[in-house]
Amino acid sequence: MSEWRTPVVVLAWIPVTLGLDSGATLVQQYLLGLMTWCLLVMLLRSETPLVRLQTAVVIAFATIVEYTFSPWLEVYTYRFDNVPAFVPPGHGLVYLAALCLGRSTFFRTHARSLVSATVVVGGLYAIWGISPWSPRPDLLGLLWYGCLLGFLVWGRSRLLYVGAFVVVTYLELIGTRLGIWQWQPYDPTGLVTMGNPPSGAAGGYGWFDLAAITLAPLLLGWWRRLSSRSGERAENCRVEQAVRGDRVPADHG
Description:
Number of strands: 2
Number of domains: 1
Structural class: mainly alpha
Helix content: over 70%
């Protein structure tokens, strides 16, 4: 049951935080951000250094994207025309929940069925987004669904992307329904239509996951090599000092 703790906590935290933010002041929003950071740190305490670094990569990458596509390009906008304080750590929680789902016994046991279900459900959602029944045309959702298919076919961590599909779709539907953020009808070029939310948002989010699982091992390996060399230099210095001490002539008075 412990393997479900993080996903359950995150899936419960999302509607609570977004519900509170729907009527919060800017100061209260900062408090929600602080609480979200505290929750993330608490959940990461039991994770490996690699997972912690992966989460940090997601937060860094996602924060750059947030400030580029929200306040600057206004692809989507938040209530205060800012990036709420809970969003950067929230991206970390989303990644961590998706990761924990993907490595759970249930997901690993039913991997083929879950991947197939993601392809079918995601495909139906994307097709609905460009159909006459959609509130507005959603070409971006279809394009992002194509990204999701690519991650599921060629990605090294397919179940991570299945978990991301669950968590991100859940997050986007709640956030847009509560009015915490709103996607514009068109992208900045005016050529690509977007739903509110785009149906394939999980495919767009998959690029954060790809950055995490690609860059984090490289960064961790680099850090360990650097630490090892630093340790060797420190040990060599201690040995040299000890040798010099042995060579000091004794004082015979």
